[in-house]
Amino acid sequence: MDLTYIFQQVLNALSLGSMLALLAVGYTMIYGVLGLINFAHGEVFMIGAFTAMYAITGLGFPLPIALILAIIASVLAGVLLERFCYRPVQGSGDITLFITSLAASIGIRSLFVMLFGSRSMQFPMPKYLQGIRFWGDILITDLNLIIFVFTVIITLILSFFIKNTKLGIAMRGVSYNKQTAEAMGINSTSIIVATFVIGSALAAVAGVAWGLQYGNVRPAMGYHPGISGFIAAVLGGIGNISGAAISGFLLGVGQVLFVAFLPSVYSGFRPLFVWIVLFIILFYKPTGLFRSNIKWE
Amino acid sequence: MAKDSNNKNLLTLENIESGYGKVKVLHNVSLKIKEGQIVTIVGANGVGKSTTIKTILGLIKPSSGQIKFKNELINSLETYKIIAKGIGYSPEGREVFGNLNVYENLRIGAYTVSKDDFTKRLEEVYQLFPRLKERKNQEASSLSGGEQQMLAIARALMQDPDLLILDEPSLGLAPIIAEEIFNRLAEINQMGTTILLIEQNVNLALHLSDHAYVMEKGKFVLDEKASILAQNDYVKKTYMGIA
Amino acid sequence: MKLTENHSDNFFKNRKKYTLVILFIFFILLFILSNSLSGYYYRILLLFGINVILTLSLNITNGYANIFSLGHGGLMLAGGYTTALLTLPVEFKANTLSLPLWLEQAQVPFIFSIILAGIVAMIVGLTILLPAFRLKGHYFILASLGINIIMINIAENVRPITNGATGLRGAPPYTNIWWIFGIAIFLIYLIWTLLTARFGRAIKAIGKDQGLAEAMGVNSAKYKAYAFMISSFFTGVGGALWTHLILTISPSSFDLLVVFQIIMMLVIGGVSSISGSILGAAIITAILEILQPL
Description:
Chain B has ten helices and ten strands. By secondary structure, chain B is α/β, with parallel strands linked by helices.
């Protein structure tokens, strides 16, 4: 088990880490303003991937346009979820919120199974992303590199936006205390919608990246990445954008390394890794790795 | 202290009934605030003072009665729209955004205001509370109680409101700091901002105010000039601890 | 004080008498139903009974003790696989699995296999959840979801014992109306007795306001652990009964969807109520059957 091997595995994991980072950032923002685990976030991610797949194979659009359509579809899904699932039950207690969120997730997934069947469908990859390059003994795919760079740029822009713009400050204010934010003249409903728009757009990007990286999409594809994304959000400290992104990367890379060091019979245990990490970390630090950005009761 | 009693009404409440769900807290409450005044609502814990304010701000909707601000009915508006009409609010317990720094708290206070007006206003507010300028990059949760109260007031002043509503600004503060805050309030009023104050420190409040209401069990039982109320035997005995 | 105690004693004596009468009528009714219902409706009745057991078990944690768990699917899985491994035909076990000899040869009577199923579920629940008890609110819910995912993942990957994603086939059809409703009635009786005892008062106090209960000297961690143990034991038993009804189980039989259905049963009938759990189980069982063709 030499260093080259480890480094190679880390590079292989960059795209998975990126996807989890994008999902985690969306999760952390939505959880922040709404105080709700949006289980359907994984389905918003899946909708983005399906839209891009259909735009490319069904309508013959090039990838960039498919990506834009995917973002539009996911944002629409996110906004509809907020409007028709979460807004009506706001303030009616944790259990109701949980059930609503679970129901939305299961409902959307079942709908897609009914429409497309539960099998995997191929996601085509354009030629210009298929390149690979060598650094000495280490191999890296262009796709891996592009997804990673893209994610880093998006996260940096978003962090800047949240830190410095009026809307970003208002989002943090609503996360901290919705009622007081309203009493400062902020329309918290529109802030929540804006948060869903951003979070869903990120999920769409992650979904398209997933399709490109693994070459297929299916209705249940959002379940495990969605939950891993939420775990990354928890570890990163809820409401903390860079914390979520970094935790997402670490979980993605960790998952791949975890499997890389085990005999191949155990490769199916990959999803367990995030849970082991979650239990260990929460056991020692029940509020997450990084500082949380909202008032925690 | 005598302010022109011919001034226009800035805020009026007429026969307000309000409460939480089925529990009625306010019964037939009427109140008038004229432009330029400082008006205080005095009363013990739990008699409905904060409910009155939350009703004015639309955080609770009144079940009957009228609330007019600048002669405009505001009963059914959402909170953020009421605030945008020119009301600044410093909530009970200060409720500063602990995860934001001082500057960002003030930025949120100026949410309804354009960027240019914000920069101008920021300087004015920093002048009023120089301590906040010193600590502008510090997180609000790390401030002392008095500084947090100043921040809450400064935040409420950011949009240059016509009416400033303060809920228990002296709560939990050392007497000397409470006095400093009240001196600031007098300054703010002299610059032309009307103030509605809720206060348990009756002595301090009546000294500052033009007019005062005494609230008991969800009703106003006394409604007088502050200077007259300060001499009232009942008020002295019940609220100021003077036999 | 004395007066009211006597009064309540009388009340309970009468109540006991009525309960016995009702039970007697109920068992006669079951006897008639078991002989008159056609296969399809009989099966629905059995499903309903199992759902009552599962919902009541979930009610102990998610209802009375206010520990919101999404992990009961994993506990059902533990129960289901335990009883299957203990009762599957030796031939199947020898051909498809590679088990230690004693387990391969094991043909345990039904009553012991469901008790063992409950115990294994209880151990699984405690191992995973005890460390999670210090987590608050949503973090705990997240950790409990972990039980589900971890158990399914293990069942999918430890092929020599679980046969992977294909699952186990051919569990003997031991489940019948008497087992199910006998256990259901025992569980109702147990919850009822516990609720009126010290345990019930403690658990309800913790459910309402844990901080206050602790300030009154209730050891909340202990009682929550007890509540979780009872709940996971009967969830495991429910999973076992279900296994001997549907006869083929695979890891995905116990996924989040199953938990969600039980939560719906719990919520529709009203949380923290025995009759509510029974009603909810009836409604959701019926709805699921009607929706089956879709």
